[in-house]
Inverse folding.
């Protein structure tokens, strides 16, 4: 499952998380995430990383954390792909 909006949604993901884009765009992305499981996964992972990073008061996610999260994204996406195809 992929669509033209995925690229836009992912490009705006960080702005969306930081609430730095205008309300109309937020609504577009939210609507897309609601219907797109792969973008929802990416969004959830970024949100978790952001929460963990802000809790640890460092500016960047430590590499081991980021790799673990990226690994879990890939695992979930493989699962999603299998379910769809
Ligand atoms: Zn998408």
């Amino acid at each position: 499952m992929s669509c033209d909006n995925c690229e836009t949604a992912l490009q705006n993901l960080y702005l969306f998380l930081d609430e730095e884009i205008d309300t109309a765009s937020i609504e577009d992305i939210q609507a897309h995430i609601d219907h797109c499981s792969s973008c929802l996964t990416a969004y959830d992972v970024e949100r978790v990383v952001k929460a963990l990073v802000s809790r640890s008061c460092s500016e960047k996610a430590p590499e081991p954390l980021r790799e673990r999260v990226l690994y879990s994204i890939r695992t979930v996406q493989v699962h999603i792909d299998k379910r769809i195809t």
